[in-house]
Amino acid sequence: MRRVSGLERVWLAARQVGPPFANQLVLEGVGSPTPPQGWPALLDELARVQPGCRLRLRGLLGRMRWVSDGPLPAVRQLDGSGWDGMGPAGAPFLDPPIDPSRGPLYEILILEGRPTRVVFRTLNAATDGAGIMLFARGVFALLRGDAPPHAQAGPTTDEQLASSMGAAASPPPAHDCAAPTGQADLEQSGCTWARVRAPSTSDVVPRLAVALATATIQAAGGSRIVRVDVPVDLRRWAPQLQSSANLTGWMQLPIHLHLGADDPIQAVRYVLNDGLQRKAAASHVLGAGFARTTPLPLLAWMGSRLATTSLREGRYGTSAVVSHLGRIDPPDFSGGGFTTSRAFFVPPGSPGQPAFITTTAGPEGLELCLAMPRALASGDRLTNLLDDLRRSLAR
């Protein structure tokens, strides 16, 4: 259906370095979604208009392809009463890796408790935040008896879309950034995450970027290079394209240059808008083209070695990732006996990524999640940084 791009291969390697490296959309509400025709029939109907939910990986080396001949998404009903939804404690069901070759690459968890939680899990290499929301909207549309949105799974790749935008490949970033929580505790391994709520506000990404830069410089004990990565959906330049593929690129904001401005948030807003005008996210996608012919085991080895070196030396390719996934309206994600009240994304933590922040907006305000390596989170550093970020949005 589509060939595996260079950046998708990077995400496949990231899955090996720090599994599950998945998109995980969590809906909280009341009731329990129950399709009258049963889940297999509903998902079979959805797969006809969203074939990407049956993707799996086939082929080797440069001949790797995503094809839609895999199993239907899995549905599991579990006891979620021991999970408060504010971190990983009590949520082992978020940990299992997703096998790209065997599938399924999409999974629905129905967690009974108060509140009920419905979790949509997908492999990050195969789809992105927009793709998982298309799938979730399709599920709930069918639960309500409505027509689901259509979405192709190919043949357009992120590389093809980026090339059509006239972008030039950007080189990989230097590993010269500090982490927002200081030096790593090398006795700790794995990743963790936490969640808080914040009031609704404008300029979410610039506010968080300034707060992260301030925390990073303070933790480093002086001026250090700070860059913040911002994922950008390339579909914004191809609004006619209804695709569930991973079509997200990243652009880097050099935040440290703007903390001395009279209005640092406005200064960062300018840098953000300039990056969008230059289509910097498309350049990032093309810059990963080297990985298209690199064997996955070698990519994974390189990623693991780089993560270990970064933690030991305190130098990273970026200080943090900030992904604002926009507003999630509860009516779009309700049906079949389940009513959503709030939603959040669990970030795909990685041992070489100092901080990954996701935000979503809803009727009750913002949901903010922060994932980071345990080596950088120890000693309450994760919760302290999360509190700083929440306060930056409340000002």
Outline the structure in words.
It is a single chain. The chain has one domain (2-394). Strands 8-14-13-11-9-10 form a six-stranded mixed beta sheet. Strands 5-6-7-2-12 form a five-stranded mixed beta sheet, with helices on one face. Strands 1-4-3 form a three-stranded antiparallel beta sheet, with no helix packed on it. The chain is of the alpha+beta class and 395 residues long. It has ten helices and 14 strands. Strand 6 (106-112) and strand 7 (116-123) form a beta hairpin. 50% of the residues are buried. The termini are far apart. The longest helix has 18 residues, at 296-313.
Q: Could you write a compact summary of the structure shown?
A:
The protein is an alpha+beta fold and 395 residues long. The protein is built from ten helices and 14 strands. It has one domain.
